[in-house]
Each structure stands twice: as structure tokens, then as C-alpha cells.
Design brief:
By secondary structure, the protein is α/β, with parallel strands linked by helices. The chain has seven helices and five strands; from the N terminus they run βαβααβααβαβα. The protein has one domain: Rossmann fold, CATH 3.40.50.300. Helices cover 51% and strands 12% of the residues. α2 crosses α3. The longest helix is centred in the middle third of the chain and has 19 residues. This is ATPase.
Amino acid sequence: MNGSVLISGCSGGGKSTLLAELGRRGHTIVEEPGRRIVKQELESNGTALPWVDMVAFARRAIEMAIVDHAAAREEQGWTFFDRGLIDAASALQHLTGEPILERLSAAHRYNRSVFLTPPWLEIYTTDPERRHGFEKAVAEYERLAATYPTIGYDVVVLPKITVADRADFILDRLKAKE
């Protein structure tokens, strides 16, 4: 059983809040590569930003996610990722047509169950690192929901319930699969 668990889905769907809850419960969590890259690029006046150079941004996210995934192998128990390699590779392939997704997903496997946060307009907000609108977030969600099964993952769409209940849902699902 792979202890690296992806939480992906709709931008603004509650992933970061959910990861924080899992972290409070003692699990190792890995912050979304995209948010870390945006912070770094804004601080250094860089251009690998999704609204400036999406291809450069996706390539940096892939590099960061590979390092994150390798580091998680040293951890005991579940490590929860806010997005990860598959999301970044899917974005790059979508943008450029470069057939990278299958190769990278085969070389860097996560737990077979991937948890997706669905579009949830009532909690969606923008911020300095998330500047796109809800419609773009939904389109990305739909692309990811279609992509994960094609590379061998079981998609589990998270219910629109409280953060604590979502964490319980994930942990119960993972324990049932052990």
C-alpha cells in the first residue's frame, strides 16, 4: 500500500484547508507545488507564474513534485499531497501536447485512490496565488477527473461536508483499503 495520497480537484474546493486538518491530526502533509512556486516567483519578480508563463510554471511544478514525492518515501504512515506530479504533468501535456503524463505517472506512483474536491462555488475565493475565476477552475477539475482514471487511479470525489468530516471520510476510506 502506497502511503503517498493525492488530494486534487477543483481549485478553491477546500484542498488546503483539508490538508491542514490532516496535518493537525498528525499526518505528514505536502503543500501544493503551485502555491509555493507562485510565492517564490512573486518574491523574486520571476515569470514562472500561471498568468505569465504557464508552461514554465508547469515545468517547475513537475520538478518540485518529483522532489516532494521522493522525500515522502522516507515518511512513515500516510503522506497527503495538495496536488502533485500528476496535476502538473497533466497541465503541461494539455498546454503543449508533450506526451509526458503517462511516463511520469508510471515512474512516480501515488496511492491508487486519489481524492478530488469537486467544484464548490459557495467556498470558492481568489487570492494573490489564485487569480483565475471559477469557470477556469471547473474546466481544470473536469480535465483532471477525466485524466486520473486513464492512468490507473481510482477517483473518489469528496462530499461537500465539513472539513473534519472530509478528513474522516478520507481516513476511513484508506483504512478500508488496507
